[in-house]
């Protein structure tokens, strides 16, 4: 077993409370989705395929639910719950556990991470909710079986503009593209997104956008350029070192004539 899978497996097992009853059958009408479910996007085609399978063979794996109000809230198995609704089931097998909001979110996160069901944005937002519940990044990482730098890097994605996050969730750019955009100044990140989408840039090409910006950025005038500008009353640019050129900018013939007179030129 890989290190990743092993860590996540231990995390989920540790989070699931021991004891409690076994599998029971609950009316599907008594269940409702978890508003804090980290996974937001479900493929309609995939749900339809699962619903067809459920109609033929039934729901083989129970849902994990917790008592909520007059019914139950789905903690783990949201996709199976949605497919069961499509399949028109009257009741479903379920494990009922008393869980806090934090425990419910941790279990939902780990279940989705094990299946690699979450998009990078969904994963980051799940971590953000856990942080909002008072956990540190180190504690979040330990709970979900991830390294702390992995959690920190995921959270950094949320610094990107919403338009970039939407493109990432929709698969129009990759996580590598998103990380490349984080290297750009905030005011240039939407520009970077347009460059990637319009020109079909690879991740490596997206990473080079930072250098392109540096090349385009106007250079600060040298002290000598500033001194000559003040002396002549016109913009001056000194290019080069021991050898080079002095460029004097004027905006009218009157300014040129005044400059020539100042330099002692007689027509």
TrEMBL record:
Alphabetic keyword roster: Chromosome partition, DNA-binding
GO molecular function, one term: DNA binding
GO CC terms of this entry: chromosome
Residue span(s) of domain ParB-like N-terminal: 24-113
CDD domains the record matches: SPO0J_N (cd16393)
Gene3D superfamilies: 1.10.10.2830, 3.90.1530.30
GO BP terms: chromosome segregation; positive regulation of sporulation resulting in formation of a cellular spore
Keyword DNA-binding: yes
Similarity-based family: Belongs to the ParB family.
Name used for this protein in its record: ParB-like partition protein
Lineage: Bacteria, Thermotogati, Deinococcota, Deinococci, Thermales
